[in-house]
Amino acid sequence: MTAHAPAGPHDGGAGAGSLLAASDLHKTYGSTAALDGAGFEIRAGEIVAVMGPSGSGKSTLLHCLAGIVQPDSGTVTYRGETLSRMPDARRSALRRRDFGFVFQFGQLVPELSCLENAALPLRLSGLGRREAESRASSWLERLEVDDVRGQRPGQVSGGQGQRVAVARALAAGPSVLFADEPTGALDSLNGERVMQLLTEAARETGAAVVLVTHESRVAAYSDREVVVRDGRARSMAGAL
Amino acid sequence: MCIVSAMSISHTLLGLLESGPRHGYDLKRAFDERFGHDRPLHYGQVYSTMSRLLKNGLVEVDGIEAGGGPDRKRYAITDAGVTDVAGWLARPEKPEPYLQSTLYTKVVLALLTGRDAGDLLDGQRAEHLRLMRELTKRKQGGDLADQLICDHALFHLEADLRWLELTAARLDKLASEVRP
Fold first, then answer.
1. Separation of CA B2 from chain center
2. Using CA atoms, how far apart are residues B107 and B115, in angstroms rounded to an integer?
3. Which 3 state secondary structure label does DSSP give B131?
């Protein structure tokens, strides 16, 4: 892939007030350039849709922003601190405490109940079981899946499972929620409801949301969109 | 947004009469409540439509109330009117394929004149998404009727966006075909 999209107003790094920012990211898998100079930024409480065709690099961008994948070059900063300069343990703690994740598939632990799944990040952060499950329970209620709290992920519908995943992601009170095609496996009605609940909850808690999607109806829940094409991100008109 | 085209206003008013006779004012109110939303019918539209339906034998005057102002006619649907409504409901609407749309013309012209068609498509995508955000907000705050109306518009805009995306991916090929 080669870069051809011109740089947009956000293609190049952190501006004042950004919570999470990336600058000139490059990432290559074999001979394929997944990211080729991508930039990105998001402010606290903002919901930004990352759109683009399959293979354009949008999921790689999300993984780099979340510190899951290390870019070959370029920087990602969170609250002004460069992710790549953090020790692994610090980066892991950040992902656990400050970041929440919702993916398309397979994110719930099949052996645990929905309540235990939702409480997992809180437990991993050292919270006692009772307190963790109490907080998780209120999130399950908020996401309208309190009735499946005792069931395992395999016993609930796709839409219910995804709501449990959103509850789990939000239970720890993240500053940034990373959602990668969160409605990709759901029908229209369930997808709409999940997006409505997810964005309402994020706006209420002040969490920023990086929403990777190829669906424009999902992107319409965001404040603005960034289009990734050939490994480069471009902010569209009407941005910040 | 008014969701009933001018062509189908007469059928919609006829359909509303099937549940029982109504005055012109009641018909307007029933229409506005269910289908008019932010673009209600004008009284003139209602009365001119009822005159036409009356002339065509699809409604009849069921009674007239004399008042301080003009006489208030109460309309009832006739058997021919019921048959007309049934025929309209059973007839599928003609799908509109939007062939040779303005957008397509703009893309081809941009390529022919050496302009950046990718920019054009990106600008259109942003405009479509802006409208989709407005509709999504309206849907979230609205009742079921609002949700269904907004969804209809959203699905159409989404189809346009898919076309924009596909066209963006095929710009090089299209350029080689349209340029002399």
1. 6
2. 9
3. helix
Identify the weakest region by mean pLDDT among A56-65, A120-129, A229-238, B133-142: A229-238
Neighbours of B108 (CB within 10 A): 17
**What percent of chain B is modeled with pLDDT above 90?**
44
Give B-chain residues touching A221 at CB under 8 angstroms: 133, 136
Backbone angles phi, psi at A210, to 5 degrees: -100, 110
Beta bridge partners of A64: none
A27 touches A71 (CB < 8 A): yes
Question: Best mutation site among A216, A232, A240 for testing chain B: the one with the most B CBs within 10 Å?
Answer: A216
Nearest-Cα residue of chain A relative to residue B153: A217
Locate tokens 């991508």: which residue? A38
Q: How many separate helices (H) and strands (E) can be counted in chain A?
A: 7, 10
Structural tokens at position A67: 């510190």
The DSSP output letter for B35 is I
- Among A77-81, A143-147, A189-193, whose mean pLDDT is lowest? A189-193
What is the reported pLDDT for B7?
55
CA distance B57 to B85: 13
Residues in chain B: 180
- Rounded to an integer, what distance in angstroms lies between the CA atom of residue A50 and that of residue A231? 12
Between the alpha carbon of residue A225 and those of residues A47, A192, A220, B147, the distances in Å are: 9, 18, 9, 23
Q: What is the pLDDT of residue B109?
A: 87
Q: Express each pLDDT in B53-67 by its tens digit.
A: 999 999 999 988 776
* CA atoms of A46 and A44, how far apart (whole Å): 6
The whole-angstrom distance between residue A40's C-alpha and the CA centroid of its chain comes to 14
Query: What per-residue confidence (pLDDT) applies to A106?
Result: 67
Whole-angstrom Cα distance, residue B171 to residue A5? Answer: 13
Rounded Cα distance, A35 and A170, in Å: 28
Contacts A189 to B, Cβ<8 Å:
none
How deeply is B111 buried, as exposed, middle or buried, from its count of CB atoms within 10 A (0-12, 13-18, 19+)? buried
Token digits of residue A60: 């790689």
From B99's Cα to the closest Cα of chain A, the distance in A is 22
Any chain B CB within 8 A of the CB of A40?
no
Q: Do B165 and A234 touch (CB under 8 A)?
A: no
